[in-house]
Specification:
The protein is an all-alpha fold. It contains 3 helices and no strands.
Length: 82
């Protein structure tokens, strides 16, 4: 598979950059996505929904950190191979 640059791809990147350049509050804009991402880990650590909210969130944060560390490990391994 060949990875080429297309005009449509460049147009999309331009649109994204312009959109972000006009965003005043980046945290507010990305909040729904960050909340949904953390909810994934909350369901993972407490599938029955029986833990207190604070405990569930703390465990979810730890599960998220472990997930990110696994991604970093895989990335490092891929770079070492290539």
């Amino acid at each position: 598979m060949e990875w080429g640059i297309t005009m449509a791809g460049i147009d999309k990147r331009i649109a994204v950059l312009v959109s972000w350049s006009r965003t005043g509050d980046r945290k507010k804009r990305t909040r729904p996505a960050r909340d949904a991402f953390l909810a994934r880990f909350e369901r993972e650590v407490d599938p029955e929904g029986v833990l207190p909210a604070e405990e569930r969130r703390e465990r979810a944060e730890l599960a998220k950190r472990a997930y990110m560390l696994r991604l970093a490990k895989r990335s490092a391994q891929a770079r070492k191979k290539g």
